[in-house]
Amino acid sequence: MNNKKAFIFDLDGVIVDTAKYHFLAWQKIAKSLNINFTLEDNELLKGVSRVRSLDIILGLGNVQASQEDKDKWLIQKNEDYLSYLVDMDESEVLPGVLKILKLLKDKNQGIALGSASKNARPILEKTGILSYFDVIVDGNDVTNAKPDPEVFLKAAQLLNIDPKNSIVFEDSVAGIQAANIAEMVSVGIGEETILHEADFIFKDFTVMDENFIESLITK
Ligand code: B16
Ligand code: MG
Protein backbone atom coordinates (compact mmCIF):
# COMPACT_ATOMS: atom_id res chain seq x y z
CA MET A 1 0.00 0.00 0.00
CA ASN A 2 1.40 3.37 -1.04
CA ASN A 3 -0.36 6.37 0.41
CA LYS A 4 1.00 8.97 -1.97
CA LYS A 5 -0.67 8.77 -5.36
CA ALA A 6 -0.49 10.91 -8.50
CA PHE A 7 -3.80 12.55 -9.36
CA ILE A 8 -3.62 13.78 -12.95
CA PHE A 9 -6.26 16.16 -14.27
CA ASP A 10 -7.09 16.86 -17.89
CA LEU A 11 -7.96 20.54 -18.39
CA ASP A 12 -10.68 21.20 -20.97
CA GLY A 13 -13.89 19.42 -19.96
CA VAL A 14 -12.57 18.43 -16.53
CA ILE A 15 -11.38 21.62 -14.81
CA VAL A 16 -12.88 24.25 -17.11
CA ASP A 17 -15.26 24.27 -20.06
CA THR A 18 -13.01 25.86 -22.66
CA ALA A 19 -14.58 23.71 -25.41
CA LYS A 20 -17.16 26.48 -25.94
CA TYR A 21 -14.38 28.99 -26.69
CA HIS A 22 -12.51 26.55 -28.93
CA PHE A 23 -15.82 26.10 -30.79
CA LEU A 24 -16.39 29.84 -31.34
CA ALA A 25 -12.84 30.33 -32.60
CA TRP A 26 -12.91 27.29 -34.92
CA GLN A 27 -16.31 28.29 -36.20
CA LYS A 28 -14.90 31.60 -37.48
CA ILE A 29 -12.18 29.79 -39.41
CA ALA A 30 -14.72 27.26 -40.76
CA LYS A 31 -17.12 30.03 -41.83
CA SER A 32 -14.37 31.87 -43.69
CA LEU A 33 -13.76 28.64 -45.62
CA ASN A 34 -17.48 27.94 -46.20
CA ILE A 35 -17.31 24.80 -44.07
CA ASN A 36 -20.38 23.92 -42.04
CA PHE A 37 -19.06 23.25 -38.52
CA THR A 38 -21.61 22.36 -35.85
CA LEU A 39 -21.54 21.87 -32.09
CA GLU A 40 -21.83 18.15 -32.78
CA ASP A 41 -18.69 18.32 -34.95
CA ASN A 42 -16.96 20.12 -32.07
CA GLU A 43 -17.15 16.88 -30.06
CA LEU A 44 -14.59 15.42 -32.48
CA LEU A 45 -12.05 18.02 -31.34
CA LYS A 46 -12.17 17.34 -27.61
CA GLY A 47 -8.76 16.31 -26.28
CA VAL A 48 -7.32 16.62 -29.80
CA SER A 49 -4.33 18.88 -30.58
CA ARG A 50 -4.75 22.22 -32.37
CA VAL A 51 -3.03 20.99 -35.55
CA ARG A 52 -5.12 17.82 -35.70
CA SER A 53 -8.30 19.82 -34.99
CA LEU A 54 -7.70 21.97 -38.08
CA ASP A 55 -7.16 18.86 -40.22
CA ILE A 56 -10.47 17.44 -38.94
CA ILE A 57 -12.33 20.66 -39.83
CA LEU A 58 -10.75 20.84 -43.28
CA GLY A 59 -11.72 17.19 -43.77
CA LEU A 60 -15.36 18.01 -42.93
CA GLY A 61 -15.40 20.47 -45.83
CA ASN A 62 -13.16 18.43 -48.14
CA VAL A 63 -10.81 21.40 -48.25
CA GLN A 64 -7.19 20.91 -49.34
CA ALA A 65 -4.79 23.61 -48.16
CA SER A 66 -1.12 24.54 -48.29
CA GLN A 67 0.99 24.38 -45.14
CA GLU A 68 1.31 28.17 -45.34
CA ASP A 69 -2.47 28.64 -45.20
CA LYS A 70 -2.81 26.07 -42.42
CA ASP A 71 -0.18 27.88 -40.34
CA LYS A 72 -2.00 31.18 -40.88
CA TRP A 73 -5.36 29.70 -39.76
CA LEU A 74 -3.77 28.07 -36.72
CA ILE A 75 -2.42 31.46 -35.61
CA GLN A 76 -5.76 33.18 -36.30
CA LYS A 77 -7.66 30.52 -34.39
CA ASN A 78 -5.39 30.76 -31.37
CA GLU A 79 -5.46 34.57 -31.30
CA ASP A 80 -9.24 34.50 -31.39
CA TYR A 81 -9.38 31.73 -28.74
CA LEU A 82 -7.06 33.74 -26.45
CA SER A 83 -9.36 36.75 -26.75
CA TYR A 84 -12.13 34.68 -25.10
CA LEU A 85 -9.81 33.80 -22.21
CA VAL A 86 -9.12 37.43 -21.28
CA ASP A 87 -12.15 37.68 -19.00
CA MET A 88 -11.78 34.22 -17.48
CA ASP A 89 -11.79 34.05 -13.68
CA GLU A 90 -12.34 31.56 -10.83
CA SER A 91 -16.06 31.39 -11.59
CA GLU A 92 -15.19 29.26 -14.65
CA VAL A 93 -13.74 26.41 -12.62
CA LEU A 94 -16.26 23.59 -13.05
CA PRO A 95 -18.48 22.68 -10.05
CA GLY A 96 -16.86 20.44 -7.45
CA VAL A 97 -13.29 20.74 -8.81
CA LEU A 98 -12.03 23.04 -6.07
CA LYS A 99 -13.41 20.76 -3.36
CA ILE A 100 -11.45 17.80 -4.79
CA LEU A 101 -8.24 19.83 -5.28
CA LYS A 102 -8.41 21.04 -1.66
CA LEU A 103 -9.06 17.51 -0.41
CA LEU A 104 -6.07 16.13 -2.33
CA LYS A 105 -3.83 18.93 -1.03
CA ASP A 106 -4.99 18.29 2.55
CA LYS A 107 -4.14 14.62 2.08
CA ASN A 108 -0.69 15.48 0.70
CA GLN A 109 -1.28 13.79 -2.66
CA GLY A 110 0.61 14.50 -5.90
CA ILE A 111 -1.42 16.75 -8.20
CA ALA A 112 -0.64 17.17 -11.90
CA LEU A 113 -2.17 18.58 -15.04
CA GLY A 114 -2.07 16.42 -18.18
CA SER A 115 -3.52 18.41 -21.07
CA ALA A 116 -3.18 18.66 -24.85
CA SER A 117 -3.56 22.44 -24.63
CA LYS A 118 -0.65 24.80 -25.19
CA ASN A 119 -2.57 27.45 -23.24
CA ALA A 120 -2.92 25.48 -20.01
CA ARG A 121 -0.76 27.66 -17.74
CA PRO A 122 -2.53 30.99 -18.39
CA ILE A 123 -5.89 29.26 -17.92
CA LEU A 124 -4.86 27.86 -14.52
CA GLU A 125 -3.46 31.26 -13.57
CA LYS A 126 -6.56 33.20 -14.59
CA THR A 127 -8.86 30.79 -12.77
CA GLY A 128 -6.71 31.06 -9.62
CA ILE A 129 -5.87 27.35 -9.22
CA LEU A 130 -2.29 27.18 -10.54
CA SER A 131 -0.82 26.81 -7.04
CA TYR A 132 -2.64 23.49 -6.48
CA PHE A 133 -0.56 21.80 -9.19
CA ASP A 134 2.82 20.27 -8.34
CA VAL A 135 3.43 19.46 -11.98
CA ILE A 136 2.09 20.70 -15.32
CA VAL A 137 2.46 18.70 -18.51
CA ASP A 138 0.72 20.27 -21.49
CA GLY A 139 0.81 20.48 -25.29
CA ASN A 140 4.17 22.24 -25.13
CA ASP A 141 5.83 19.26 -23.43
CA VAL A 142 4.73 16.25 -25.46
CA THR A 143 5.14 15.05 -29.03
CA ASN A 144 2.49 12.32 -29.05
CA ALA A 145 -1.20 13.12 -28.66
CA LYS A 146 -3.70 11.10 -26.60
CA PRO A 147 -4.49 8.14 -26.83
CA ASP A 148 -0.71 7.95 -26.63
CA PRO A 149 -0.02 7.89 -22.85
CA GLU A 150 3.04 10.20 -23.07
CA VAL A 151 1.38 13.17 -21.35
CA PHE A 152 0.24 11.12 -18.33
CA LEU A 153 3.44 9.05 -18.05
CA LYS A 154 5.47 12.25 -18.04
CA ALA A 155 3.27 13.74 -15.31
CA ALA A 156 3.67 10.64 -13.10
CA GLN A 157 7.41 10.58 -13.76
CA LEU A 158 7.80 14.25 -12.76
CA LEU A 159 5.87 13.53 -9.56
CA ASN A 160 8.14 10.52 -9.04
CA ILE A 161 5.15 8.22 -8.67
CA ASP A 162 4.66 4.86 -10.39
CA PRO A 163 2.02 4.83 -13.19
CA LYS A 164 0.21 2.04 -11.30
CA ASN A 165 -0.21 4.49 -8.42
CA SER A 166 -1.63 7.18 -10.69
CA ILE A 167 -5.22 8.25 -11.28
CA VAL A 168 -6.38 10.20 -14.35
CA PHE A 169 -9.50 12.40 -14.55
CA GLU A 170 -10.54 12.73 -18.22
CA ASP A 171 -13.55 13.75 -20.31
CA SER A 172 -12.38 12.43 -23.68
CA VAL A 173 -12.38 8.86 -24.99
CA ALA A 174 -8.80 9.28 -26.26
CA GLY A 175 -7.74 10.45 -22.78
CA ILE A 176 -9.36 7.46 -21.07
CA GLN A 177 -7.64 5.14 -23.54
CA ALA A 178 -4.31 6.88 -22.83
CA ALA A 179 -4.76 6.36 -19.08
CA ASN A 180 -5.67 2.70 -19.61
CA ILE A 181 -2.64 2.12 -21.85
CA ALA A 182 -0.46 3.70 -19.13
CA GLU A 183 -2.03 1.20 -16.66
CA MET A 184 -3.29 4.07 -14.55
CA VAL A 185 -6.71 4.22 -12.90
CA SER A 186 -9.00 6.00 -15.37
CA VAL A 187 -11.84 8.15 -14.08
CA GLY A 188 -14.24 9.44 -16.74
CA ILE A 189 -15.91 12.80 -16.14
CA GLY A 190 -19.05 12.96 -18.28
CA GLU A 191 -21.44 10.60 -20.02
CA GLU A 192 -21.36 6.88 -19.24
CA THR A 193 -22.38 6.02 -22.81
CA ILE A 194 -19.29 7.80 -24.17
CA LEU A 195 -16.72 7.02 -21.46
CA HIS A 196 -17.58 3.35 -20.86
CA GLU A 197 -13.91 2.27 -21.17
CA ALA A 198 -13.10 4.11 -17.92
CA ASP A 199 -12.58 2.27 -14.61
CA PHE A 200 -14.98 4.72 -12.91
CA ILE A 201 -17.38 7.31 -14.33
CA PHE A 202 -18.87 10.40 -12.71
CA LYS A 203 -21.22 12.94 -14.25
CA ASP A 204 -19.06 15.69 -12.70
CA PHE A 205 -17.05 16.35 -9.54
CA THR A 206 -20.09 17.35 -7.48
CA VAL A 207 -21.11 13.69 -7.28
CA MET A 208 -17.63 12.48 -6.28
CA ASP A 209 -17.23 12.19 -2.52
CA GLU A 210 -14.37 11.97 -0.05
CA ASN A 211 -14.85 8.21 0.37
CA PHE A 212 -14.10 7.63 -3.29
CA ILE A 213 -10.89 9.70 -3.12
CA GLU A 214 -9.93 7.92 0.11
CA SER A 215 -10.46 4.51 -1.55
CA LEU A 216 -8.09 5.51 -4.38
CA ILE A 217 -5.45 6.71 -1.94
CA THR A 218 -5.50 3.57 0.20
CA LYS A 219 -5.83 1.11 -2.72
P1 B16 B 1 -4.79 24.61 -27.57
P2 B16 B 1 -7.49 19.06 -23.00
C1 B16 B 1 -7.53 20.17 -25.41
O1 B16 B 1 -7.50 20.31 -24.04
C2 B16 B 1 -8.91 20.50 -25.95
O2 B16 B 1 -9.85 19.55 -25.50
C3 B16 B 1 -8.88 20.47 -27.46
O3 B16 B 1 -10.15 20.79 -27.98
C4 B16 B 1 -7.82 21.46 -27.96
O4 B16 B 1 -7.73 21.42 -29.38
C5 B16 B 1 -6.49 21.10 -27.34
O5 B16 B 1 -6.60 21.13 -25.93
C6 B16 B 1 -5.39 22.06 -27.77
O6 B16 B 1 -5.62 23.31 -27.21
O7 B16 B 1 -5.25 25.09 -28.91
O8 B16 B 1 -5.10 25.55 -26.44
O9 B16 B 1 -3.32 24.23 -27.58
O10 B16 B 1 -8.86 18.48 -23.01
O11 B16 B 1 -6.42 18.08 -23.41
O12 B16 B 1 -7.15 19.76 -21.71
MG1 MG C 1 -10.49 17.26 -22.10
UniProtKB/TrEMBL annotation:
<feature type="site" description="Important for catalytic activity and assists the phosphoryl transfer reaction to Asp8 by balancing charge and orienting the reacting groups">
    <location>
        <position position="146"/>
    </location>
</feature>
<feature type="binding site">
    <location>
        <begin position="45"/>
        <end position="50"/>
    </location>
    <ligand>
        <name>substrate</name>
    </ligand>
</feature>
<dbReference type="InterPro" id="IPR006439">
    <property type="entry name" value="HAD-SF_hydro_IA"/>
</dbReference>
<feature type="binding site">
    <location>
        <begin position="115"/>
        <end position="119"/>
    </location>
    <ligand>
        <name>substrate</name>
    </ligand>
</feature>
<keyword id="KW-0479">Metal-binding</keyword>
<dbReference type="GO" id="GO:0008801">
    <property type="term" value="F:beta-phosphoglucomutase activity"/>
</dbReference>
<dbReference type="InterPro" id="IPR036412">
    <property type="entry name" value="HAD-like_sf"/>
</dbReference>
<keyword id="KW-0413">Isomerase</keyword>
<feature type="binding site">
    <location>
        <position position="77"/>
    </location>
    <ligand>
        <name>substrate</name>
    </ligand>
</feature>
<dbReference type="InterPro" id="IPR023214">
    <property type="entry name" value="HAD_sf"/>
</dbReference>
<dbReference type="GO" id="GO:0000287">
    <property type="term" value="F:magnesium ion binding"/>
</dbReference>
<feature type="binding site">
    <location>
        <position position="146"/>
    </location>
    <ligand>
        <name>substrate</name>
    </ligand>
</feature>
<keyword id="KW-0597">Phosphoprotein</keyword>
<dbReference type="InterPro" id="IPR051600">
    <property type="entry name" value="Beta-PGM-like"/>
</dbReference>
<dbReference type="InterPro" id="IPR010972">
    <property type="entry name" value="Beta-PGM"/>
</dbReference>
<dbReference type="InterPro" id="IPR010976">
    <property type="entry name" value="B-phosphoglucomutase_hydrolase"/>
</dbReference>
<feature type="binding site">
    <location>
        <begin position="10"/>
        <end position="12"/>
    </location>
    <ligand>
        <name>substrate</name>
    </ligand>
</feature>
<feature type="binding site">
    <location>
        <position position="12"/>
    </location>
    <ligand>
        <name>Mg(2+)</name>
    </ligand>
</feature>
<feature type="active site" description="Proton donor/acceptor">
    <location>
        <position position="12"/>
    </location>
</feature>
<feature type="binding site">
    <location>
        <position position="53"/>
    </location>
    <ligand>
        <name>substrate</name>
    </ligand>
</feature>
<dbReference type="GO" id="GO:0005975">
    <property type="term" value="P:carbohydrate metabolic process"/>
</dbReference>
<keyword id="KW-0460">Magnesium</keyword>
<protein>
    <recommendedName>
        <fullName>Beta-phosphoglucomutase</fullName>
        <ecNumber>5.4.2.6</ecNumber>
    </recommendedName>
</protein>
<feature type="active site" description="Proton donor/acceptor">
    <location>
        <position position="10"/>
    </location>
</feature>
<dbReference type="InterPro" id="IPR023198">
    <property type="entry name" value="PGP-like_dom2"/>
</dbReference>
<feature type="binding site">
    <location>
        <position position="10"/>
    </location>
    <ligand>
        <name>Mg(2+)</name>
    </ligand>
</feature>
<feature type="site" description="Important for catalytic activity and assists the phosphoryl transfer reaction to Asp8 by balancing charge and orienting the reacting groups">
    <location>
        <position position="115"/>
    </location>
</feature>
<dbReference type="Pfam" id="PF00702">
    <property type="entry name" value="Hydrolase"/>
</dbReference>
<comment type="similarity">
    <text>Belongs to the HAD-like hydrolase superfamily. CbbY/CbbZ/Gph/YieH family.</text>
</comment>
<keyword id="KW-0119">Carbohydrate metabolism</keyword>
<feature type="binding site">
    <location>
        <position position="170"/>
    </location>
    <ligand>
        <name>Mg(2+)</name>
    </ligand>
</feature>
<feature type="binding site">
    <location>
        <position position="26"/>
    </location>
    <ligand>
        <name>substrate</name>
    </ligand>
</feature>
<feature type="binding site">
    <location>
        <position position="171"/>
    </location>
    <ligand>
        <name>Mg(2+)</name>
    </ligand>
</feature>
